[in-house]
C-alpha cells in the first residue's frame, strides 16, 4: 500500500494523457496502488480531468484531446514508445508491486533488483507505454540519514 504521507503537500504533479483514460485509471489504481481522488468525465465517458494520489504525491491525467494543451503532448505510441521523462513511485514493498505489474502484463524494462544507491526497485511500462520506476529508495528519508 502507500507510504505514510509526509506533513507537506506535493507541489509538483506530473500530468499524463491516455487514449483510454478510464482503463489507465483502473490499471494505475489496481496495479501500482494509486487512489482516485477526483475523476471528471465527459459525456462520451472520456476523462476531462483526474487526480490520482499515492502517499502525499499526486498525478493528474486525462483523455487525449485535440486542444491547445493536447497538441503539446505526444503519446509514447506516437513516438516509437520513447519518453522524455518517467515518474518514480516510492513504495514499501517493491516485490509486491512488481508481482502485480507482472500479473497485469506490464512490460518490465529494468528487472527488480537491489540498487547500489539503496533500496530495491524495477521499471515498467503501463498499458499505453508511459514508463514508471518503482522502488523502496526514498530520496527524502535517505538524504536525512546521510546528514
TrEMBL record:
Domain of life of the native organism: Bacteria
PANTHER family to which the protein is assigned, alphabetical: BNAUNNG04460D PROTEIN-RELATED, VOC DOMAIN-CONTAINING PROTEIN
Protein known as: Glyoxalase
Ranges of residues in domain VOC: 9-137
InterPro entries in the record: Glyas_Bleomycin-R_OHBP_Dase, Glyas_Fos-R_dOase_dom, VOC_core
Source organism (scientific name): Pseudoduganella plicata
Amino acid at each position: 500500500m502507500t507510504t505514510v504521507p509526509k506533513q507537506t503537500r506535493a507541489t509538483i504533479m506530473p500530468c499524463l494523457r491516455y487514449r483510454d483514460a478510464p482503463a489507465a485509471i483502473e490499471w494505475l489504481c489496481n496495479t501500482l496502488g494509486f487512489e482516485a481522488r477526483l475523476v471528471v468525465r465527459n459525456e462520451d465517458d472520456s476523462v476531462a480531468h483526474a487526480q490520482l494520489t499515492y502517499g502525499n504525491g499526486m498525478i493528474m491525467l486525462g483523455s487525449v484531446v485535440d486542444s491547445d494543451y493536447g497538441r503539446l503532448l505526444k503519446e509514447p505510441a506516437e513516438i516509437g514508445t520513447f519518453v522524455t521523462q518517467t515518474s518514480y513511485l516510492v513504495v514499501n514493498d517493491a516485490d509486491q508491486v512488481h508481482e502485480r505489474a507482472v500479473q497485469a502484463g506490464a512490460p518490465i524494462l529494468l528487472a527488480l533488483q537491489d540498487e547500489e544507491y539503496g533500496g530495491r526497485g524495477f521499471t515498467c511500462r503501463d498499458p499505453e507505454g508511459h514508463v514508471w520506476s518503482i522502488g523502496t529508495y526514498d530520496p527524502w528519508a535517505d538524504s536525512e540519514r546521510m546528514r
